[in-house]
Structure formats: C-alpha cells, structure tokens
Amino acid sequence: MVDPNTNDQLTDCLDRLTSAVFSPFELLSSRGLGEKLLELVLQGEPAGTPWIVSGFKTLAATLAKFDTSQARVVIFGGGTGLSTIVGGDSRSLSWVEHPFHGLKEIFPRTQAIVCTTDDGGSTGELLRDFPLIGLGDIRHVLLSSVQKARLKADYGASEAEASQIGVALFSLFNFRFTKKPSSLEDLRRRGGLSLQGLPSPMAAGLMALLGRLFADSRLTKALSRPHCLGNLLVVAAIYARVDGDPLEVPPRAIRDGIRDIAALIGVPCDAVLPCACTPSVLKMRYANGVVATGEDKAATARRGVPVDQVLVDFSRPDPQVLPEVLEAIHEADIILFAPGSLYTSIVPVMQTPGLAQAVRDNERAMKLLVANLWVQAGETDLAVDDPGRRYYVSDLITAYHRNIPGGVHGLFSKILLLAMQEIPGNIIQSYAVEGKTPIYLDRVKVWNMGFSPIEASIFSREGLLDRKVRHDPRAFATAIKVLWAVNSYLDKKEGQGALTLPPSGADGTVRATAQVPCQRYGRIRQTLVRLGVVDLERVVEIVWRHADIPIVHLDSLRGVTVVSQKDWARGQEWDRLYSFYDPDECTIKIRKDLIGTKQFEPALLAALGQSLLGNYALRKEVTPLLHGGEVLGKVYHLTLRPEDQRQCYFSDQALIHYLLLAQMRQSTQDPLHFTRVVNGDAGFTPPGLLLGLTYAWYLDNRFSSYIEYKMGIARAEVADHVLEYGRHQARRRSLIDFVREVVFQQGHAGNSPG
C-alpha cells in the first residue's frame, strides 16, 4: 500500500537531519520531533543556511508526496467535532466555501463511527415518534463526508458544478421548519426545496425521499413537529427499507437507509456508520450522587459538582452493532478519536459493547486522541480530584479512562492538540469573557502517564479573522498525514513511557433498562390523557423532558387541576409554593395564576414528588414546647396510617427510612408516631414539602434554591473537629442516595428501569 521507495527516502532525510552534531531541527521552535515535523509542513522552512533549507525542502517534498489514497482511517465521535475533522462543520455557512476539505480529501477511505445518544433538537422530536437511534449527528457527518471525486465519478460534475452541489445540499439538509408543511410545494415556497444545481438523478432521488414524508402514513406524523429537513431525509431513507411499523427498526434497515442516501449525495459506501443500532440513553452521574438522564439535559445541567461517571443505558441486553463497524476497526490503518463533548461523544461510543476491545485488538494502527480546545461548562469545568483548579489534558485522559470499559489502554498513544500558544492573547481573552477557557496541556504529566503530546498549528487562520478559534479541516488532515508517514520512525526515535493509570472504573456491563423513547412518550401521553390533566401538552412536555421520571410516578394520580386565587384555601405557613398534592382527591392542585409562567414546571414537579407519599399521614399537628411555663419552641407531630390502610409509593421500611432522613424522630412506644422539635421561631420543612422540593431539585437544581443551599453542604469540605458538620453532610448525602435509588429507581450505579 505504501511505496517502499518513499519510506526509504523519508528515513534517509530524517536520519541526515537528526544525526548531525548540531541538528537542523533545533532551528524549529517546537519541542518533540513530531511537533517539529508538523511545524515544518504547516508553517514552512525556517530561515537558515542553504544546505539546511535544502534539507528541509527535500523532507517536506517527500512528506507531501506520501501516498494516502489507500490508507484506511476510522474516526470516532459525534456532532460538530467529528464533522469538522471529517470535512468541515456542515451546519456552518462557511462550509459552502470549502465543502471538500478535511480528512476525506487526503484520506478518501475515511470511515466515521458516530455516537447515537443524541436526543436534542430535531433528533429529540424524532425520538417521540420513531423507535430509532439518535440520527442528528449521523445527518451532520453525512453531509460533511460528501466527496468531490464521488460527485465527479457518479454524476460527471465539473469543479464548478461540484461546488454548486455542495451549496444546494447545504441548503436542503440544514433547512428547518416549525410550522407543519402541507405539501412539497409548500416546502418549496418556504425555501426548503431549492434543488437548483443538483444533478437530475440526485434531485430525483432526494425528491422521492421527500415525497415519502407526505405519502407514507408512518412518516407523516413527523411533519407536525419542528424539524431539520436533513434528519427527515435520513428517516425517509431508513423507512423505505422497513416493512410494517416495527417496535424497533432493524439494524439492516438503518445501515441500508444510510447507504442509500450516502450514494445519492456523493458519500462512499459505509463512510458513515452508527456506533450502535439499538436505541439508548445517556446518563451522567455527578459526584454528589445525582443522575441526569438524556444527552441534551446532561449537557445543559449545572450541578456545581464534577461528573463522576457516565453510563449508556440500552433498550435491550444485546445492543446491535453492525458487522461493518467491527470490520472497519479491524482493517483500519489509522484510528482517531475526534474532539467534541467529552462525556457525550467518545465515551458513549466506547461504551458500545465490543468497540473498545476491537480498537485494542488492532495493534498495527496508529491511534491518536484529538484533545478538546475548551473547557465545557457542566462537564470539564470541574476536575474530579480538585473542583477548585483548572482543567488539564491529563484530566481529559483520566475521564476517558474512568468511563471506558477497560480504560484507555490500547485505545490511543498520541495526543494531538491545537497549539494555543500561537493564538493571539486578545482572542483568548475574549473567549474568557464568555466564560470559555482552554484545556491546558500539562506536558510532563501526560508524558509520564504514557502518552505522547503533540501540539500543532491545526487551527483555522480564516477563523482568527473573525476572532474564532477552531480546527482547520485541511491543516488537521495534513497533520495526520505527516504523523502517519513518520509514525514508526517517531516510535523508534522517541519511544513511549508505560501506561501509569489505575484500573478503569467502568466494568463494561451492558445496561438494558432504558425504554425505547417513543414508547415512553406514548405511555406518558396515554396516562396523562386518561387523567384529564389541565394544560395537557405542557405537562406531557415536562414529563417527557425529565426522562428520570418513571411512568409509575403518575399511576397514583387522578388528575392535575387548577384552583383560582380566590378559592386557594391552603395555608402557606411552611412555604410559598402554590401547588400541592391532595391525598383525599389524589390530585395535584396548582394555583391558576401559575399557568403559562416559569413557576408552573417546578410547582408541578414538587407536587408530583409529594404525591409519592400518598395518604401516608393520618394526622398532623403542631403543639407548643413548654418548660416552666415558657414556650421554648414547637413540636411537629406526624401520625402514620397503618400500613394496610396506606396508599403510598414507598414500602413501610422505605417510608420510615425517609422520615428519619427528614430528621423526624420515631416514638419508641408508638412506631406510627413521629415528632420533630423546632427551636424558638426557627423554620421547618415538613416531610411532604421536603420530598417535593428535593424531587424537583434532583431533576433540575435550578428549581429549588432552598434545597440547593441545603445540599451545598454535601460537596463542602468537612472540618474534622466539628462533628455535627460531618453528620449534616452525611444526612444530605444519604437523602440524595435515597432519592436516586428509591424514588427514581436508579440503583447504586445509576441504572433505571426507564
């Protein structure tokens, strides 16, 4: 595959330039040999004597003619990071200026293996209606993978015509609508069907797929939701291969549908592959024990503590992986891990059963991790071992190691980084104003961990003109070409340390408790329609968005009703939360003025949390605490109904455990009687209110600042000499554990029955 003569020439050039008493490479400012080679190729020869410059020119020319046409590249990732590396960010208008650059240009046999846990935006809307994997990232990478050579070969396109095709495909795939289109002609009027510039066979094929959206009864429901047209094209291509209306779309149909649309738009067969064909959801567990379910929600959560663990929960115990995926990994000459969201791109891909081991089994490929540029709020803004310090590349590696089954051993040996020191300081400062800071390279630590860090000028110089720092697809691809050309030489010259990481925290167990999202959505609607809840669509939306809510939490309800302000008779001495659960009527009641406001969602969730207690209380009362005729405080009394008369989500044992966590004291004479002593005029949160507020806080900590304040003690350092402080912290952590494991049924490791 590689010309032996070229290899010999490279070795000869490198030996002559590195073996001299004074190595000409010393004229290059970069540190390692790999970095110096990238500096030479990406920035040109340094000034020097003619014989030195001549040697560098010869080396650069030899590297330039290194043949990559048959090199097989596999790259893992998701979304913008992956598409940018493969062929440019195809959602950005700037893509149409250079639609054919990137890995696909220099390495035409590139195959992208794409994360499928995406559940935001148009993809999330699709998941309501179809038993599919997340397709948004696949659509994104498909468009980025269009190759000029394929357009020329398949459609006889000229250079100018290929560029016109890129513009037309960009407009078509990225067109979005919010109002339901009534017909293809309606879409055309809105600007979504601009097929001008496309070859007739391509235009006809795409029109046929669009026509299916209006003609196929299985697909028409999608038109009622806001969507990206590119996603619908992919769905239409897949469903053209599906018989009937299955509970789960077969892997073969997903593969063939993607192949069909790829062939239409000039993408090589199997250039884009899903990491798995089984629906799955991503779960992010934080250091305080809270679990957030759903990639979109996890990416926007701000829990204020580091991410401890990431889990992928599949809808079946044997997640379906296409044989083409494993074959691509086995045959790869180069294996890359694209930059992107740390916990929502590479980690979910590598948690797909068999993929990490397949990478390890390929011992001949060059394996390289592309480090992220920026700290990401909610994910990489807090280090696990010390949330107060900045985030480093070593933290990035450690996070992958903790969350990938078997760790990072055998997955990559080199770390490619954008040389941030070459970015003007005023641009870095402008990012800092927006709250973005770089992920810093701690070079010595990374090397001592067993990895070779390589910094290079792989940023877009055009982007700098707009004060933007981003990877340049062409510079990146050139860097990979150089590193692959000299890979064995670098390993021989520089070697590599032994991996010095502890055992991985991920066990590789397949978690198969997730419900297929569209089935969950159907159950939510069915249940809430039966209950006749007020503001039905909004309540459905709230429950759907919080995927941690088990449907069983709705089973004890008879409805959600509103009460006018003048009829609101509930006392507010304990709170100003204008919602509650009425155990006599088994309904959630919300004050009418909350309808249509931001307060509606937290009010609903808090009342839903309270409803889990059901009619647990037979009697509640508050009595004064007297001593010597003086009122010292008050005593809150709670008497439970006997277990056989109780309608409650919790078992008797779990209920008592919760009441003790709420700092109620169980009577030694009457086990159904609980008390809480409150000093003087101090405030007090009754058990029902505490459960409701904690329920809402667990789902989104923005909803209850009071509980967020109380839970703050769970992440603070404990002063050993103040024993009560430690007891407070232990109670808070135990309460979070109870809510996670008992209320939301997520188990010790974050598993959930969906």
Describe the model:
The protein has 754 residues and is an alpha/beta fold. Helix content is 42%, strand content 13%. The chain is built from 30 helices and 19 strands. A 7-stranded parallel β-sheet has the order 5-2-1-9-10-11-12, sandwiched between helices. A 4-stranded antiparallel β-sheet has the order 16-17-19-18, covered by helices on one side. Strand 16 and strand 17 form a beta hairpin.
Proportion of residues in helical segments: 40-55%
What is the CA-based Rg, rounded? 30 Å
Strand content: 5-15%
Shape: globular
Number of strands: 19
Tally of DSSP helical segments: 30
How do the strands line up in the largest sheet? 5-2-1-9-10-11-12
Largest sheet: 7 strands, parallel
Structure classification: alpha/beta
Low confidence ranges: 749-754
Count up the domains: 4
Alpha carbon gap, first and last residue: 49 Å
Mean pLDDT: 88
Which structural traits does this protein have?
754 residues; alpha/beta; 4 domains; seven-stranded parallel β-sheet; four-stranded antiparallel β-sheet; 30 helices; globular; disordered C terminus
Question: What topology emerges from the helices and strands here?
Answer:
Blueprint: H1 4-18, H2 33-43, H3 50-64, E1 72-77, H4 79-87, H5 103-106, E2 109-114, H6 121-129, H7 136-144, H8 148-155, H9 159-174, E3 176-177, H10 184-190, H11 200-215, E4 227-228, H12 229-239, H13 251-265, E5 272-274, E6 280-286, E7 291-293, H14 295-300, E8 307-314, H15 323-331, E9 334-337, H16 342-350, H17 355-361, E10 366-370, H18 393-403, E11 414-418, H19 425-433, H20 443-449, E12 452-456, H21 461-465, H22 473-485, H23 487-494, H24 517-531, H25 536-545, E13 559-563, E14 579-582, E15 587-591, H26 600-611, E16 617-627, E17 630-640, H27 652-661, E18 665-666, E19 673-679, H28 687-699, H29 705-711, H30 723-743
Parallel strand pairs: 1-2, 1-9, 2-5, 9-10, 10-11, 11-12, 13-15
Antiparallel strand pairs: 3-4, 6-7, 6-8, 14-15, 16-17, 17-19, 18-19
Helix pairs in contact: 1-3, 2-22, 4-7, 4-22, 6-24, 11-12, 12-13, 15-17, 16-18, 24-25, 26-28, 28-29
